[in-house]
Specification:
The protein is α/β, with parallel strands linked by helices. About 55% of the residues lie in helices and about 15% in strands. The protein is built from nine helices and five strands, in the order βαββαβαβαααααα. Strand 3, helix 2 and strand 4 form a beta-alpha-beta unit.
Amino acid sequence: MVERPIQVAIYGATKPYRSALLRCLDPYRYRVVEEVGPGAAPSSARRRVGIVYLDTDSDWAKADELCRGRRVTVVGITPDLSLERVVKALALGCDGVVHADTSEEIIANVVDSAVHGEVVLPSAAATILARAYLNQVSVSHELEPDELLILQRLAEGSHLAGIAGEVGWSERTLRRRMQSIFLTLGVSNRSQAVAKAGLLGLIEL
């Protein structure tokens, strides 16, 4: 039995680049059902893979929309393969991220891997993510449940008096405990503590 080609939609980028992407994909395995230029609205065509050129805010919004639906495999192609962009794309839910100027073979490999539930990453990005995960595990074990609650309430904009009352401490004790939290996270103030705790996934922002 002959398998049906996987339907693909390509979003963003210029038409010449979208044409170049078509050459990367095995025509017997993939069939492009839609090409959408920057800022254009996609149709309701059914698709299994969405390839998004991640450059403008609208490109990132399209990737976010596709990832939230989770009905498609999403591959982000970025003109700047900085670690920040890679992590941002993965945090959105992209199943793969690849540099726009890499070889056709690598782009095809990233798409194929994403379809099969695997993620191909630059080694530097993989190392950073692994270290961040280990750091998260280490820090989460060092922080007490009350301290995590304090960080969450700070992120929500609660005042110290209200937080102290919730955990059953005096404000003086709370301030002293916050210094301990800063030391554990390696930061020097509340804003930095909240930002780092959010980055590590210890609290919701």
